[in-house]
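User: For my dataset I need records formatted as: sequence, then structure tokens, nothing else. Please produce one.
Assistant:
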Amino acid sequence: MVIGVCRVELSIPDSFSLKDKRRVLKSIIARIRNRFNVSISEIEDNDMWQRAIIGISSISNDAHYTNKILNEVMNYLEKEKSIIILDYSIELF
């Protein structure tokens, strides 16, 4: 069993309140969850208006497949216009 974990630091430049931030994040999280069948959640910077850190995880029997799924999620996030990716890391266990 291989567990893949991705930690993504985001900037949300058009957010001017926590309500704006939650609206953007909820939309992105729901679309990723439905499209890629991964676990995803905001894990840090919950009270900051223009920053968020999300965690994404995937479990599989194949390390190559797990890494591929997490890279596809990152490619999807890079195309998202409402956020800027500041940093990310992918680890497989």
